[in-house]
Amino acid sequence: MDTRGGRLSLVRGGAAQEFTVTLRNGNSADHRHLLVAFQMEVLVGEPGDRPGSGPGFLLERFDATSGAWRPAELRVANDTRPLSLYAGGGPLAREAVRVERYRLRATAGGPTGSTPVVVSFVDTDTDREAAAHVLLGHSTG
């Protein structure tokens, strides 16, 4: 994971902040469908904050082929999604490296607070994590 300052500090209705995820397969096997999955818990604001309304966040992935940003799934929930429910992902050959660009924006009506974004690496062919998940620090004000 790489982002300016090592974390995301968002402002409701403000600009998106970019970050990259680098996948390195030093494994002994190719991955046919390796998915980068994002989840964060529901934000609980500080005393006196107004609760949010609307979707809260917009996550996008940069599509290098078209040169455009495309919507990506950010699950906001306080439970774990079973790995068998994930689908998709792209190939990552043995010893290969892939860098994916993302950006996250807090919508104007979204919540405030702080919770890390959990980034998981799911092999959707085997319904297993291909590597340990990592945490991206995040706060929205």
3D architecture notes:
With about 140 residues, the chain is mainly beta. About 0% of the residues lie in helices and about 50% in strands. It contains no helices and 12 strands. The strands form 2 sheets. Strands 2, 4, 7, 8, 10, 11 and 12 form a 7-stranded mixed beta sheet that branches. A 5-stranded antiparallel beta sheet has the order 1-3-9-5-6, with no helix packed on it.
Overall mean pLDDT stands at 90
* Assembly level: single chain
**Which structural category do the helix and sheet elements fall into?**
mainly beta
CA-CA gap between termini: 22 Å
How many beta-strand segments? Answer: 12
Describe the structure in brief.
0% of the residues lie in helices and 52% in strands.
Keyphrases for this structure?
mainly beta; seven-stranded mixed sheet; 141 residues; five-stranded antiparallel sheet
What order do the helices and strands come in, and which of them pair?
Elements lengths: L1 E2 L3 E4 L6 E8 L6 E10 L16 E7 L4 E5 L1 E3 L13 E3 L4 E10 L6 E2 L2 E7 L4 E13 L1
Parallel strand pairs: 2-12, 4-7
Antiparallel strand pairs: 1-3, 3-9, 4-8, 4-11, 5-6, 5-9, 10-12, 11-12
